[in-house]
């Protein structure tokens, strides 16, 4: 049994202890809270109390400004950490954190987007070579470091300087849903949209497109486009050159149980393309949504890494780099100028 403790007790923290309930050989020992409260897991009044319980690793689900302190303390004590995104709030903080703990190999980042079933299936298809060499990724679904992570993942790009250009516009938009409820407000309000191009070099680029609250606002589609040398993937549609004078169109399809007279219960089973399974849900029977599947997968991989049985799920250097690029988008907006990021120690 691999165990962990969560530092924090907010909305995001709950995903981790709920996921642990459905993952074999994984247990959440409890959560560190600043003030006493009732939770579904035991609570600790301090990090010292949590570490005294002997967790195999920590999950930080804390404010951006607090996370580096928790990471540093855990590393000083030799405890592996899975840190919620981003690991530090600004470039100065990222550099300081890397200087303090970068050499320890004890810190992973809780970047889960490419572990979601749809994205995992799309990534498998791109990596199969179906659309040739990926050259450009358009992401319009999530913000900042998450979008950068998706771009780099689909492009197969590592860490290094990038060139960023960005603009922001505003327009009226109804915001019917917030994080966990209907807003009850159907009056349009001004919402900002950020468009940015990110040049990763070597002919690889990304287009960032995010509107305020796009994570939750169902009046905006989530869009993903991956362009390759021999075709492209648009959400779940694929166009590709299959041979001389042969262009094919096809789709990634999701098979779910629980429809019509299937009485096994509603659940994601697998995603496939042209008769080939790209992704199988490892938690069938849990009836989880995609985000829960992604978080459980992340915890599973972290536990395997801690035991020495798996690769690092998302190293600190990658999480730091994603946020550095995201900060460059904000800098380009503020300066209304092209921004070229610097070469950093984590590259």
TrEMBL record:
InterPro entries: NAD(P)-bd_dom_sf (IPR036291). Gene3D superfamilies: Dihydrodipicolinate Reductase, domain 2, NAD(P)-binding Rossmann-like Domain. This is Predicted dehydrogenase. It comes from Auraticoccus monumenti.
